[in-house]
Amino acid sequence: MTEQISPDKTSTGTRRRTPRLSRPGKPAAAKATGTPRGAVRPPTKSRRRPAVIAAGVALAIVGGLGSWYYASTVGNTVTVLSTQTDVARGATITSADLTTLQIAGGQDTPAFTAAQATDVIGQTATVDLPAGTLVTTANVGAGISITAGESIVGVALTVAQLPNYPLAAGDRVRVVDTPIAQGDPPATSPKSFVATVFTSRFDEGTGTWVVDLVVPSQEAADIAARSATGRVALILDAPKGE
Questions:
Q1: Sign of CA dihedral 35, 41, 44, 45
Q2: Gap between the Cα atoms of 179 and 182, Å rounded
Q3: DSSP 146-205
Q4: CA-closest candidate to residue 186, choices 228, 154, 233
């Protein structure tokens, strides 16, 4: 009888070992020293920097103070007067020349408030006031007043007899004798009279400037007589103290 050999046995009678295969879908065991697959790592601790924190606190304080200052100053405003038209030096202030403007309160300014408008109307601009200028005690005044011993004399002058620079109330001038037309210049210094401009206006009918002058009463007659001849000229002098 012939002996049959089992498939699991070799010819020597030793059982053949069949290698075991890993089942699909099961991962291999992780090494003991590694991190298990799928495990969640603990969060990394952040370092606190005192300088950065202090800077953030300082910025927050500064921002809060800025907001408080803006709210307090904007909410505390004062309505003052300003010019809405150009006002020439020496001109009388009218209601049409004025408008209002709001400024922050607490400022040390001599500006007139809106409630003082009636006090400003009728006063004289002591300097040129372009539109948008604050009306203050420094650029508006009562104008020229006549005192005892003074008189007002009107002098009619052509454009050739006075400076081209516009005259204004309070200007210091001199009324000077001039020779006849085409005459020789005087051999000595001509007679002159010191005066102060009270008002000035242009007469379109005659094409001349009419200037009212404040002069000493004892000289008023001499100036009026010379003005009637037309042989005078007006000189503009610098203000006192300049």
A1: negative
A2: 8
A3: --TTEEEEEEEE-GGGS-SSPP-TT-EEEEEE---TTPPPPSSPPPEEEEEEEEEEEETT
A4: 233
75-114 pLDDT per residue, tens = 588 899 999 999 988 888 999 999 999 888 777 788 999 9
State whether residue 74 is helix, strand or coil. helix
Residue whose pair of structure tokens reads 């007659």 in the numeric block:
221
Tens digit of each residue's pLDDT (9 = 90 or more) over 152-181: 999 999 999 999 998 888 899 999 999 888
Q: How distant, in Å, are the alpha carbons of 94, 103, 140, 167 from that of 121?
A: 5, 21, 10, 21
Q: In angstroms, rounded to a whole number, what is the distance separating the alpha carbons of residues 33 and 30?
A: 8
Q: Which residue has the tokens 């290698």?
A: 19
Phi, psi of 48 (to 5 degrees): -90, 130
Of 79, 61, 57, the closest CA to residue 69 belongs to 61
Q: How far apart are CA 142 and CA 120, in angstroms?
A: 9
> pTM for the whole thing?
0.53
